[in-house]
Amino acid sequence: MNETRVDPKTIRKYIKSDQLFKLKQVSSRVSKLEPFKDYLKERVQEGATNCSVLLDEIRAMGYEGKMTILRDFIKPYRQKPKKQAGIQPAKL
From what superkingdom does this record's organism come (predicted)? Predict the structure, then answer.
């Protein structure tokens, strides 16, 4: 892919043919989660990253989307767990 986001083979195909190429328009659809993002960011700052709890909260506010969209949105805000020390098994 290149800057046109069209495969070079597709570009060559249309250059060689007499057909016109139409670029697909990027969807301007608004996410179902959009109206709740400010609330979710506020809850994450308070330490809430449990998506089941957050889903229940925003559903009470009128959210009609699914858990997957919520998880994808919350994922970058979660802190990565610190590595825990463990005991190495003895070598025999």
Answer: Bacteria
